[in-house]
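Re: Re: token formats

Sure, here are both.
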Amino acid sequence: CECGPTKPSLVGYRRTCSARQPTPSRCLWNPFPGGTNWMEDEAAMSRENEMRGAGRTRNRGVNGMDARATPELPGHRMGWKPFEGIKMDVRNRWPYYKSDWKQGFNASYRILAPATYVFFANIMPSLAFGQQLSDGTDGELNGVNVLAASAMAGFLQSIFGGQPLLIIGVAEPLVLVYKFMYTFCNDNDVDYQAFATVTLFWAGGMMAVMAILNTCKYIHRFSRFSGEIFGLLIAVLFAQQAIVGLVDEFKKDDSSSEDAQEYSWRLFNGVWSILLALGLLLTSLLCVQARGWPFYKGFIRKFVAEYGMAVMVLVWSLIAYIPTGRPSGVPRTLDFPDLFDTGDSWRVVTRLSNLVSWQVFAAMVPGFIITVLYFFDHNVSSQLGQQKDFGLKKPHAYHYDFLLLSFYTWFSGLLGILPANGSLPQSPMHTRACAVLKKDAVKNEALMEEMIEHGEHHGHTYRGKMPKRGSRVALVVMDQEKMESPPLPPEDDKPFFIREQRLSGLLQSLLMGACLFLYPVLQKIPRSVLWGYFLFMAIESLPGNQFWERILLLITDPKKRHTVLKAPHMAFLETVPIRTIIYFTLLQLLALGICYGITWAGVAGIVFPVFIMALVPVREYILPRFFSLPDLQELDALEYEVIEGMNEADEGFDAVLSAMGEDEVEPETVQEILDEEIRPGFRAQFAHSLQRSDIRRRRTSFELERRNSADL
């Protein structure tokens, strides 16, 4: 391939053709054999190199949209011919189906690591959403329905899905929709579970029509503008639910004993719940930072970072039972019924006759809401799980997966459970967990064979020990023509490759299903631990959200903005005027406030996903009237771009500082200097600054003293 030089990225190096610009016509490689190689489109090529800044090749795209998104979506220019996108996805993905399983089984016991990692990342939100759903529907639906939905959909996705790395589960927005539906049914004397089933029938039909008409070709228009607002909205809703749950711990609970209803025990339960929630929050936040610890061995830090949160849930659940002499109901535990004692939800189909005609047609409204929500949420989850930085080799299947999602939705309606869709952040977490370092693969014959079969042998220079002639690995290298799957794209010089397989997703879904039989254990988990987990998810979702980073910039003292530049910072800080950044952020805050306000509008709050979806055309057609296209390109870049910090001596530092509203670095006050000099401890101690020359003199003096001592 003559597509041009490689460029550095946060995770290694990538080729310009795959990450920054469409593949030129002289590139002989078609990554989608048998399908439409849309990347040869001359119109897309002519728009390339319109902008160049900070050493990066930029493509302005349409109305300031980041055109770098388009290489991920071959065929997005297709028409409205029915089933065209689905046929293309099946034709492109089917040749790799056997290798998807083969790579999983070739990984042997190593596949357990990503499977268990994503299982723990999926089981905790499911339990939390189950409790939230049980509280919001008075027990009509509960954690059993949520776990069953996640396990069933994950199992089917791992076997029949077009993108096996996609993790399927129940998300917070769907729980809100179901709570609004319950309010409507309760106010109008409607059979809630039957109404929810008809709603899913409507939603499944709409999603099937959208998949058949190739509507997924438009997902390349999803940008960070709407995605970041949606992400921050979910964080706010997580925090809100945690606060509401902790406040309820002080109130009376009919399921508790009479002694637990007394004021003194309710006060104890509330305070104890706050301590448990904060304890889980702080220890979990500490554990996720374990990779950067200087303590312990690397495998210990990795274990703590990946499984520490799950271990903390167990630890704080045990701590909750330490107080003695407490009555039954203190602490209040998870509402998780027995697997075979969940009411009539499994036989909901027999109650559809309870609905009259107007109720059936009224279910079309929440069905449309769920369709809009899933079109956005499911496809964004799939996109983030296949982003360019991961360097995946196998093609996507957006249209086919969305059609499959409609079948999941229909099946969920028949069983009376919730419909599941692509989960965030579990999907990109799963992809990262399936990464294998090439340097480790070269040292291990089994891993190197897997790397070779994955296509990483193209142009790769083995720096380790070469396989012996006649060995299994060598035969694979020499006999490339006998590969059972189509050839994969050339290596892009990344230091890792991703196991694109189905086995880890299958194992995690089976583990989710097995938890349904562990209800005696799950019933012992305190609710306060789940409220702490909600707070953890709210805070943990903020890093990486540029909207949140710009909110922090708004409250940063203008006289201290130079400290932001000295640390690694977002690239647009050096290219976009600070006034434009402030206006863009305030606009996003306004949109976030409106969307959050809609969720408080009673039954009408069910339309909040429509407002989120409406932000997509607002970004594409309205914002370019108020912001310049270069500024939009920088502020709404597809990738999270970070640049290293600057110093006062660097060229352009003063100009950037002036553009940020700070003419010069203000000298620190005496109090600030003292605060930096004072070290925390049991007693305040003043640190004396030493020069390197002082250390050199001491080292020379000590060496002379040691020699003299040795001579004596």
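Second one below.
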Amino acid sequence: ERRRAMYIPPVQLKKTTKIAIGELLYHATSRQHGREAADRVITGCQALDEMRGHVVTVTNLGIASASPEAVDRCLTYLKALDYVATRLDNQPLSGNVEWRNAFRPDDLNDVARLPSVPLERTALICTLANIEGALGYAAVTDGTDLRQACSHFQRAAGYYNLLMNQPVLQNVTMDLTHEALKCLETAMLANAQMASFTWARQRGTTDATAAKLAMGAHELLDRTERLAASPSIAQSGIYQRIGAPCKILGMYYLALAYDRRAAACDSNHDMDEELTRLHEAQKLCFTMQQTAPRILEFCDTSLRSQLMDGIEKLTATLGQRMKTAESDNLSIYRVKPMVDPPKIEASTIVKSMDVTDILIGGEVDSRVQSVFSGLLPKELTGPIREYAKMDEEHVRGQTKVLTEKSMMIKDIVQELETTIESLAAEQENPSTTQADKAMVEGVREASLGGGWDYLEKTSQQVLSMATDAQARLAQIQSNLAREEAEDAQWRNDPAVASARPRSFDVTGNYRGAAGRIREELEVAAKSDAYVRSLLETSKVLIKGLPLPQDVDGVAQKRDTGELLARLKALQPLLARGKKLEAEKDALLKEFMDTQTLQYVDIDKIPQEAAAQKAFFEENIKSKYGGMDKRATSLQSEMATFAGTTRKDLDALSPSEDQTRLNRASDAAGAAEKWKEMRQFQAEGIKFYNRELEII
């Protein structure tokens, strides 16, 4: 599965120009809170300039800079900016912030310019989404961690979804419009679904469930392609980058759905539906082969090559499966293909992640918080101002810890949902079929037979024999020509001519045979060239054959009992994870609601500074004491849950038998192509041996 991993490529990062954001925020502070207050936040403004400089570096490097560190830098700046914005009451900036279109990041004219913190914030969230998408793409293409890749894709979708549900900004670039954001969200979900399909296959899911997952991927890909083709955004470049690959990938996953459904029918001996599904899949592959070069004409070259290679592999695998099915039907079932097969139900097990906790959790940079925290509403004066500051910091601290713990729970709950959805549809799996055994044996034969190395060596042998045959024939024909010339010279002497047999009478049969052999070698040379071209186009496919030990030992039974028992154990864990998330949300709301209550009675505040602080601390303790205890208990519960549940999920490794069978299934097309090429070469060697013997 990893060798043929194909996903929607990531969108480039939005680029921005360097601006003195600190100076703009200084002037905004001065307008709202006065010059004196603005002077007190200068160091925080300088820190914001530094943070934005890091973001500019990340965006200028593009998706090549996508990394957890890049995410941290964007989040650090965003959280600091959000904190400052709470002190400025939507004050407009005295200068513009500028962000380019992510679909055309190098176009200096395609840019949004607004004196607006909301534009800065929106562009930052879009950048985070694009980075998460790039991280997911990197994880699936190098096969490092499909679960992590799925989280990246769903997190990216969550950021896009968040932007869609925010107030609409005017005069923004095309990538920030509602239509484009919806397309990008759906694309990320499609990537997550494709990763989930591969992950489920590796974990030994049944063919029936794999078909539903593939159909879910098809529907998301089809939806993404239609969104990218929307007239309002189609000219932005999004169709060439996302829409076109989705059109081919959508057909590809529909073919996979038919293929997996056919495999399930094979296990259940439903030969009539199996034949129909295989035929449907083959028709889709033919359509893809005919249309993909045109549809993908303007796509990235490496992606186009990867997609075409995947189509070739699937086509070869389906060809082998169809041969086996038709043979079984002829000898055993003798049924006609099903005319109107039932629709394959789609199972979509991914969703956009709620990223709210990511944005509100964690600490605000101390250089910013320490100076901007003093910018409280003007009506708060004297000691009560200090109390309000302590009150806010207490709630912010609890929010930070709870959201950090919750982010671990959120990832685990998402993974639990994915795993349970994948296993929930599992049916009791029958014995390994005869077709499975034949498929495994075919792959073993090709691998033990030397794979690509054998074919390459044999191809050289055929070429050498052809060259040798042509050289020997040329020598014979040269000798015959010399003999005929000498005969003509001797016949000038009447005495010799009368006694010497004519050369034609002696060598005529040889010349006729040589002529026939020459014609046969010319025809054979054309056949050899054709076989060599077939061999070259199949090189990548055949080189992907697994080692014999990687497919050996497929058991007679695929034991799903243990997986189903684990499924039952995972369901209460999911319920507990969701309950912890709900408790966290309720507790945070209670903290926020309590913070908005009236402040401490001014008449009871002590005059001496130390006494004031102690009084405020005691008041806060009284105000939040019960909530603080519940927060501590909840944090402990979430940490324990995260640790134990992670172990349970990690233990859900795929059965070794199923893993081996999956490898064999993936390599079936390569094995069939290997056998076909070996047969061609064997016929070539046989032909040249006969020709050389005659020569």
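The longest strand covers residues 97-100. The longest helix spans residues 383-424.
- S.
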